[in-house]
Amino acid sequence: MDNNLAVVYLSVLVGLLTFAVVSVFRQLFKTRKRESALSRLRNKLSKDTGTAQEYYELGCIYSEKKVFAQAIPLFQKALKQAEVEGEESIAPIYNGLGYAYFAQEQYDLAIRQYKEALKLKPDYVVALNNLGHSYERKKLNTQALQMYEEALKFAPNNSTAKRRAESLRRLVSA
């Protein structure tokens, strides 16, 4: 019996260690991939003008790294370059710019960017959620609830919108 218990403990320990090692390596590869993309894009964009997609990708990387002050000008360059290129799907760029402003607690600017994204793509659920969150931060609960309900029209299983709308319904009706 004691031998079986030791085998169980050892098996659990090996399982936990395997899980930890796999998790560390996944994070390491993810970070390495992001840093490689950062370096490649920075080098390319320092030498010549990039595409809207390249500026957008670099802005996203800076946003992931929480360096929003550097992400904002890149998203703005992406928008300008998208105009030059005649790019039509620029709603994600506006959403990324809005997110960067939101993270710096510049909610009015964030709201403006999310609204621009929604003008271009009214069923953009991520922008609807983000706009709702911005309204919440400004204590505009009725508008926030409207945005979450709009998001639920397009994505009925959206867990974020469901949870926030339910919470806001209680708050608004109280």
Report on this structure:
The protein has 174 residues and is mainly alpha-helical. Helix content is 84%, strand content 0%. It has eight helices and no strands. α5 packs antiparallel against α6 and α6 packs antiparallel against α7. The longest helix is centred in the N-terminal third of the chain and has 46 residues. The protein is flat and about 70 Å long.
From the N-terminal CA to the C-terminal CA, the straight-line distance is: 60 Å
Shape from CA axes?
A: flat
Report the total helices: 8
Radius of gyration: 22 Å
Mean pLDDT: 90
Sequence of secondary-structure elements: HHHHHHHH
- Briefly note the structural class of the backbone: mainly alpha
Tell me about the largest β-sheet.
Answer: none
Flag low-confidence runs: none
Number of strands: 0
Give the DSSP E fraction (strand runs of 2 or more residues). under 5%
